[in-house]
Amino acid sequence: MKKSIVVLSCIVILFNACTEKSADHKGSEANILAPVKELQKKYAPDKRVAVFNIKTYELGNKLIVTGEVEKEEVKKELFGRLTAEKKELVDSVIVLPDEKLGDKTYGIITVSVANMRSEPGENQELGSQVLMGNIVRILKKKGGWFYIQSPDKYLGWADPDQMIRVSKKEAEDWRNAKKVFVTNYFGFIQQQPSLQSYPVCDITGGALLKDLGTTASWTKVELADGRVGFIQKSNVIDYEKWGTKLTPVADNIERTGKYLMGVPYLWGGTSTKGVDCSGFTKTVYLLNGQLLNRDANQQADQGEPIEPGAEFENLKKGDLLFFGRKEENAMPDGRQGKPEKIVHVGIYLGNREYIHSSGKVQLNSFDPNSPIFEEYNLKRFVRARRVITSTPQVAEVKTH
């Protein structure tokens, strides 16, 4: 009997010791995770447009810190916060761009539309696209793919064959070169100043090309990889005038959107070849001198909020319409309501009609008596924003 009591006492003591150790470990883990989460919220609240991927592991008295950040000062702040744990810090954090890339940490797109995917591989989800002539940051390489950041800050994996790698100086040289902005929706760069000439490549609206001079009806252009050709003068505008001469005007927004009628819906598409809902609004505004963010819920933070009115009477042509789920209030039983969720965007055209990409670019109406009435979208309408303004939330192309 006494032997059993002794054994039981030992078990209790061992259990208490393990419990105390576990509690200490959890406390230490919480102290470590807190600054990591705080810095992630500070520097990368949206993982689609910023990099802060940090993981920590405890090994005895060592704290192993791994992952990636975009700036050296962010890394210093992270380690400064973690030293409070009084553990030996093992630094395995990479500051992007990865030093393995050398000085070629920029790229210039050399195809009409370059795809950006969620993971390296042609079979991976299409997240966004970048148009010809745009400069991207190259952050790292994996296999045969580059992890890039587009001019609108979006992150994704791209095929290196769709760009030319350049240094910072070479990127600045391209940025400062005299260029033209392609205003035509679709077309070709010809080998000679003739429509019967074979093409150098295809082209879409929004592309940037080096200007080599203009004749009566043709502009000679150069791509970033050195290819030279000709594009019809009427299909381009001097880049210096872009964003000033063609500022967003409601009628122009409508005209541009309607010229894209029937263009197929493409998840991740942001070009005139195919667009998702936010890719459509982004493209329409780009062709009118204004830059919108990439995704619908990001665009929902731009411009000015507008109370639409019971019959949408307060809306103006060109306002952005957002669809999804409205924020739900807390339940009577104390349960939290669901937050707002934006999943779709369109452009208001007046008279309760709007244009958007859903299956294809098409017109629909909020009016139940209209032949193009769409009850589904009326029920999921959330709110509206006005972006044809001078507010700083929406950047003009000329300042980008």
Structural write-up:
With 400 residues, this protein is α+β, with helices and mostly antiparallel strands. It folds into 4 domains: 27-96, 2-Layer Sandwich (Histidine-containing Protein, Chain: A), CATH 3.30.1340; 100-175, Roll (SH3 type barrels); 177-238, SH3 Domains (SH3 type barrels); 250-399, Alpha-Beta Complex (endopeptidase fold (from Nostoc punctiforme)), CATH 3.90.1720. It contains 7 helices and 27 strands. The chain has helices at 2-43, 72-82, 168-176, 250-259, 277-286, 296-299, 375-380, and strands at 52-59, 62-69, 88-95, 106-109, 113-117, 126-131, 135-142, 145-149, 155-158, 163-166, 179-182, 186-190, 199-204, 208-214, 218-222, 228-232, 236-238, 270-271, 274-275, 290-291, 304-306, 320-325, 341-350, 353-358, 360-365, 381-386, 395-396. The strands form 8 sheets. A 6-stranded antiparallel sheet has the order 21-26-22-23-24-25. Strands 9-8-7-4-10 form a 5-stranded antiparallel sheet. It has a 5-stranded antiparallel sheet with strand order 16-15-14-11-17, with no helix packed on it. A hairpin with an 8-residue loop joins strand 5 (113-117) and strand 6 (126-131). The radius of gyration is 27 Å and the shape is flat. The chain starts with a helix and ends with a strand. Mean pLDDT is 90; it is low at 1-24.
